[in-house]
Amino acid sequence: MAWRRSTSELPAGEPARIPEEARDVTWRRLRRMFSARATRANVLATVLTVALGFAIATQIQQNQEGGLATLRQDELVRVLDDVTQRSTRLDRQVRELEVQRDQLQTSADRAKAASEQAQARLDQLAILAGTVKATGPGVRITITDSAGAVRAAGLLDVLQELRDAGAEVIQFGTVRIVAGSYFTDAGTSITVDGQSLTRPYVILAIGDPQTLASAMSIPGGIIDSMKRLGASASVDQVTAVTIDALHTPKTPRYAQPVPEPTVARTGG
Fold first, then answer.
1. Which residue pairs, CB below 8 angstroms and at least 24 apart, start in 171-175?
2. pLDDT at 196
3. Mean pLDDT of 155-168
4. Are 117 and 103 in contact (CB under 8 A)?
5. Residue of 51 and 224 predicted with greater confidence
6. What is the mean pLDDT of the chain?
7. At what angle do helices 209-217 and 152-164 cross, to 10 degrees?
8. Between the CA of residue 255 and those of 93, 250, 251, what are the distances in Å?
9. pLDDT higher than 80, residue 264
10. Which residue has the higher pLDDT, 103 or 85?
11. What is the C-alpha separation between 134 and 245, in angstroms, rounded?
12. d(Cα 148, Cα 200) in Å, to the nearest integer?
């Protein structure tokens, strides 16, 4: 076994020597630290991390304010299920961002890789904005409410459960759901983004079919809620759901993008 002496044990006048290999490792680490560049993936990872951190902090605060001790067993099951599903989604998103970062850093053609990543991101945003059609596995939910007991708040609960379960694209009747969608009661009818829904309510959602179906069927979930109202809800897992309803974005009246600062360049 090889023993090393600390610098305090060296004879007087004998300088401490650093092995050549350790010195090379140290220089390589320093070069990596100072060669970091702001890439699209790094910026995207930073923005997503801040947004996710804010969402998690808000959820924790709400749980603390509400008090878990006052919840029923079925409500505690729903909270635990939501936390587990969110943790799984966050882990998956972190891995995807790490892959994108590595591709941008190691690709021989960085410009091409950046362009491909930008196009992929544009496609994702178009789906989220509801401006393009989407297809994939998911579920079809049918809510039968002949007595008209289900109101806008009940359908909003369905939307929230689907989002918590990881639904990526959702359609209520003929209305594409986006971030700014809203539900209102209009007499005996329910409207989504100002468009009336017809009974029975048919809801399409793209995501993991088993996870989405389980979220609807957990104790105290949507199916139980509809039964308490005198309505009924059925969930069918579908291998290929096609969502063809489109959303027309509105032009902001007041909000304007902040221009990015320009960096002056000097010839060398």
1. 171/203, 171/204, 171/205, 171/243, 171/245, 172/197, 172/201, 172/202, 172/203, 173/197, 173/198, 173/201, 173/202, 173/203, 174/245, 175/245
2. 95
3. 94
4. yes
5. 224
6. 80
7. 140
8. 29, 12, 9
9. no
10. 85
11. 9
12. 10
Q: Select the more confidently predicted residue: 6 or 175.
A: 175
Q: How many angstroms from the chain centroid is the CA of residue 217?
A: 22
Does pLDDT of 176 surpass 90? yes
The one-letter code for the residue type at 23 is: R
Work out the end-to-end distance of the chain between its first and last CA atoms, rounded to an integer number of angstroms: 55
SS3 content of the chain, % helix, strand, coil (to 5): 50, 15, 35
Phi and psi angles of residue 11, each rounded to the nearest 5 degrees, phi first? -60, 155
Integer Cα distance of 86 and 181 in angstroms? 22
Of 95, 86, 116, the closest CA to residue 104 belongs to 116
Q: Which residues contact 121 (CB under 8 A, 6 or more apart)?
A: 40, 44
Taking the C-alpha atoms of residue 88 and residue 211, their distance in angstroms, rounded to an integer, is 12
Query: Residue-wise over 117-156: b if at least 16 C-beta within 10 A, else e?
Result: beeeeeeeeebeebeeebebebbebebebeeeebebebbb
What is the pairing mode between strands 201-206 and 175-176?
Answer: unpaired
Which residue would you say has higher pLDDT here, 29 or 13? 29
The conformation of residue 179, written as its DSSP 8-state character, comes to T
* Gap between the Cα atoms of 232 and 230, Å rounded: 7
Per the structure block, which two tokens stand in for 106?
């190691």
Total residues belonging to the chain: 268
- In the predicted structure, residue 265 carries a pLDDT above the cut 60: no
pLDDT at 164 over 50: yes
Q: How far apart are CA 145 and CA 227, in angstroms?
A: 10
